[in-house]
Amino acid sequence: MAAASKRISPVILCGGSGTRLWPRSRAGKPKPFLPLIGEETLFQQALSRCRDPLLFGMPIVVTGAEHVKHVEAQLSVVPKAEVIVEPMAKNTAAAIALAAMRLPRDTVMLVCPSDHHIGDPSLFIEIAKAACELAAGGWLVSFGIRPRGPETGFGYLRQGEPIGSAGHRVAEFVEKPDSVRAKKYFESGEYSWNGGIFAFLVQDYLAELKKHRPKLEAAIRESVTVGQVTDGRFLPGAQAFNRIEAESVDYAVMENTLRAAMVAADMGWSDIGNWKALHDARRQDEHGNSVRGLVELINCRNVLVESDGPRISLIGLEDVIVVVDGGDVMITMADQAQLVGRLRGAANQ
């Protein structure tokens, strides 16, 4: 693996508005750039997982103009990186294609979101090696996460026949099913969540994109051809890029390809999609509580409390989340945390 692994190029996708973790996460500085778990930000953790020079090449970070300053301020965890600045957000199929067209065709890309948490980084490396070996053999590989419930916000992968010792074909790829199907998939035990982490050979990803979304592929190719490097950043041509119809890699490629594969990735993964998910991922005391800032608890269980200034005192509460940040206060029951993004404060960040 040592020789092949030098061709692995990490591609870190950096974007989003972060409304579901309001008020801590805001449009001006969303969750990838915050130290939500540990001292490093989620973005820095994503880079750090892929910085072994014996395994990985220089990372490519794909982001938007509104996030460039945060990206460049936090790149110090790696020796060097290329930053691609999208003219506007066009979802993951286009973002991955931008990176692919800046790489040699025989490069294996390891595509990683910048805002996920992985509790076992060492296991992530071993799974990434297996995924990249499959990708080098012509497969388009997803990381499959053991589901913890019938979530409708994730894609689902049904495991098919084995490929070698580490992977399987994807027998079915379903992006964000409704609640009835999600419950059926979860109860069957045959499905994994799509973790949003992929391994592709550059030439295979671009070939599948051209086959299934030829207009998108052509527009990306034109935007890269006329793009230029300015201040160390690669700027794709905006006119061609803006013609793209935004679409995720899941819909554009993974649901359509006949070469979809998966590796099981039970590595403590979380997308940190809301405050409850963050609470679950953080270290807790013997009562299930997680606190940051000036906080006092009496007879509380399973609460998350975070304050950037004022003292927060809670007595006798369970399954509650309290966050104070920048003059804003947000309080929710844990099982309602997915609704935070609907608050007017979150929408008007």
| CATH-defined architecture of the largest domain | Alpha-Beta Complex
Which structural class do you get from the secondary structure elements? alpha/beta
How confident is the prediction overall: mean pLDDT? 94
In what range is the share of β-strand residues?
25-35%
CATH superfamily membership of the largest domain: Spore Coat Polysaccharide Biosynthesis Protein SpsA, Chain A
Radius of gyration: 20 Å
- Residue share in helix: 25-40%
Total of DSSP H or I helical runs spanning 4+ residues: 12
Give the CATH level 1 class of the largest domain: Alpha Beta
Distance between the termini: 46 Å
Q: What's the shape? A: globular
Strand order in space, largest sheet? 6-9-7-8-12
Largest sheet: 5 strands, mixed, barrel
The overall strand count is 19
Low-confidence stretches: 1-5
Oligomer: single chain
CATH T-level fold name of the largest domain: Spore Coat Polysaccharide Biosynthesis Protein SpsA, Chain A
What is the domain tally? 2
Q: Can you describe what's shown?
A:
By secondary structure, the protein is of the alpha/beta class. It has two domains: 2-270, Spore Coat Polysaccharide Biosynthesis Protein SpsA, Chain A (Alpha-Beta Complex); 275-347, no CATH class. Helices cover 28% and strands 28% of the residues. It has twelve helices and 19 strands. The chain has helices at residues 2-5, 42-48, 68-73, 91-100, 121-136, 179-188, 202-212, 214-225, 238-241, 249-254, 275-281, 344-347, and strands spanning 8-13, 60-64, 82-86, 108-113, 117-118, 140-145, 156-163, 167-174, 191-201, 228-230, 233-235, 260-264, 269-270, 290-292, 295-298, 304-307, 312-315, 320-325, 328-333. Strands 6-9-7-8-12 form a five-stranded mixed barrel. A four-stranded mixed beta sheet has the order 14-16-18-19, with helices on one face. Strands 5-13 form a two-stranded antiparallel ribbon. The longest helix has 16 residues, at 121-136. The protein is globular, with a radius of gyration of 20 Å. The termini are far apart. Mean pLDDT is 94; it is low at 1-5.
